[in-house]
Design a protein that fits this description.
The complex is a heterodimer of chains A (about 120) and B (about 200).
Chain A lengths: L1 H10 L1 H29 L14 H7 L4 H7 L13 H8 L3 H17 L7
Chain B lengths: L1 H11 L1 H11 L7 H13 L5 H34 L3 H27 L5 H10 L4 H25 L4 H39 L1
Helix pairs in contact in B: 1-3, 2-3, 2-4, 3-4, 3-7, 3-8, 4-6, 4-7, 5-6, 5-7, 5-8
The chains are: A mainly alpha (about 120), B mainly alpha (about 200).
Chain lengths: ~120, ~200
């Protein structure tokens, strides 16, 4: 093994270094894949949570809630027509904290689900 | 990091996708596949129109690849000539050139989507080692069409799980690219060892 490494090192040092780095990177990605798999195997880890980057349209689509319900939850922060805005931008535009906007959206989703309409497992 | 990219796409739409596709094809470490995934998700959410997203990603990628190819052709050829000064390397490079001309189209094709992190480097090498432009352009356009439809399509189809898909695809493609690079280096080393043996006899 050592003599083989010495032989390829003498023949092509740069290629040997790149080979070593590439193999190390492959190991890292394999570990990450396995870690992801284990994490994903737990159903509790599969639910997406409302995040600052999401737009009202995206939230409506992902949680299968009618758009007006989401937009109503964001009252006072109606998106400018013509361009979609993330919760982050909406919060900034209206001078409120994005955390409050997320909480309001989550509450609206929960309330809508509880009302029976658009229930999803 | 995923969330920063998603936020950028929701704020700047097709423009940021075009810029990122162009620059990532020139070896700048920008997560364009993530941009395309979120582009697909915002299409299905009704926030972005499909045509601008797809055209921006495709146009940016093809223009970026062409630029990389030209950089390889006019900037890389002298470097290759310098590398070829040692006889062993020259023998291997000659073999590599033959390989590139015979199989380069496959290399370019797969490096645009299946092992996308290698794409920019393959473009430089294809330009520097003299792959015909027509061959490069054909396989590049076909490959980028697959790259764009694959990622925008995945974003569109799995919009509500976009973070998960992004992480999963990132790891799979990273693993494939690392294995391909290792494989290419193994072939190179084997060729150098063989060339050395031939010289000794």
């Amino acid at each position: 093994m050592v003599s083989f490494l010495k032989r390829i090192w003498t023949a092509a040092p740069i290629a040997t270094v790149i080979l070593g780095i590439a193999m190390a990177i492959a190991v890292v990605f394999s570990i990450r894949l396995v870690a992801f798999w284990i994490y994903w195997a737990d159903p509790n880890h599969r639910d997406q949570t409302v995040a600052a980057w999401m737009t009202p349209g995206y939230i409506a689509y992902s949680w299968d809630i009618p758009r007006p319900v989401i937009l109503e939850a964001l009252t006072g922060s109606t998106p400018r027509p013509g361009r979609p805005m993330s919760l982050d931008e909406l919060a900034e535009m209206n001078g409120i904290r994005v955390e409050d906007l997320i909480a309001a959206t989550e509450a609206a989703i929960a309330a809508h689900r509880q009302s029976g309409a658009g229930a999803r497992p | 990091m995923n969330e920063t990219v998603f936020a950028l796409v929701s704020e700047y739409g097709a423009y940021v996708i075009f810029a990122s596709a162009f620059l990532s094809c020139l070896a700048l470490p920008i997560p364009t596949s993530l941009m395309m995934l979120s582009g697909g998700a915002f299409i299905v959410a009704g926030d972005l129109a499909a045509a601008p997203v797809v055209l921006a990603a495709f146009g940016g990628a093809v223009l970026g690849d062409q630029t990389g190819f030209l950089i390889g052709r006019y900037g890389g050829a002298p470097v290759i000539d310098r590398i070829a000064r040692s006889p062993a390397r020259r023998a291997v490079l000659t073999r590599a050139r033959v390989l590139v001309n015979r199989h380069g189209m496959f290399g370019v094709f797969f490096s645009t989507w299946l092992v996308a992190p290698l794409g920019p480097w393959v473009n430089f090498v294809a330009g520097a080692t003299g792959l015909t432009w027509v061959r490069f352009a054909i396989s590049d356009i076909l490959g980028e069409a697959i790259w764009v439809s694959l990622y925008v399509g995945l974003g569109y189809g799995f919009a509500s799980q976009i973070d998960t898909i992004a992480t999963l695809m990132g790891n799979i493609v990273g693993l494939l690219a690392a294995l391909s690079a290792a494989g290419a280096m193994a072939l190179w080393i084997r060729a150098v060892l063989r060339a050395g043996r031939v010289r000794h006899h």
